[in-house]
Amino acid sequence: MEQFWIFGYGSLMWRPGFAFLRSEAARVHGYHRSLCVYSYVHRGTPEQPGLVLGLDRGGSCHGVAFEVAAERWENTIAYLRAREQVTSVYLERRKNITLIGSRQRVEATTYVVDRAHRQYAGVLDNDALERHVRLGQGVSGHCTDYVMNTIAHLREIKIHDPALEQLAGRLGLQAASDSR
Questions:
Q1: What percent of the chain has pLDDT over 90?
Q2: SS in 3 state form for the chain?
Q3: pTM of the model
């Protein structure tokens, strides 16, 4: 029986927006989570870009894998393409991931950043990261909310992301899970 998996490393972890059979913490090798995408729509504008996460080359990334029922696969992929490919900054790829709980290796669809795209920010210094996150606001809300929601979800599933935690400290913000 063929399985259908989606790997989320940013907002898909805490707001997938599609029906799934189950979810499990997972890891992909060869890529890392990075605020490396200028957001012109969801968390910023072309005039005042915010930043969103991309899956960039190098390292490894803990995230969440979602198993999707075969009969829902086509609708799920259509939804994700509409959501993730608004400006075509991500490349849809099939990657081998490891499900943390079961240690099972599966193939999952995920979205990696296109380094040749004009929205690829690359590695920004701390001041630039902070500025874009503080000022970015788009159709899906403020960039600081995006960052803090991601950190809160990562904490809930026991994933520590030092770069995002450092940024939160610079922003002087507390993730939602800290205020409970």
A1: 80
A2: CCCEEEEECCHHHHCCCCCCCEEEEEEEEEEEEEEEEEECCCCCCCCCCEEEEEEEEEEEEEEEEEEECHHHHHHHHHHHHHHHCCCCCEEEEEEEEEECCCCCEEEEEEEEECCCCCCECCCCCHHHHHHHHHHCEECCEEHHHHHHHHHHHHHHCCCCCHHHHHHHHHHCCCCHHHHC
A3: 0.89
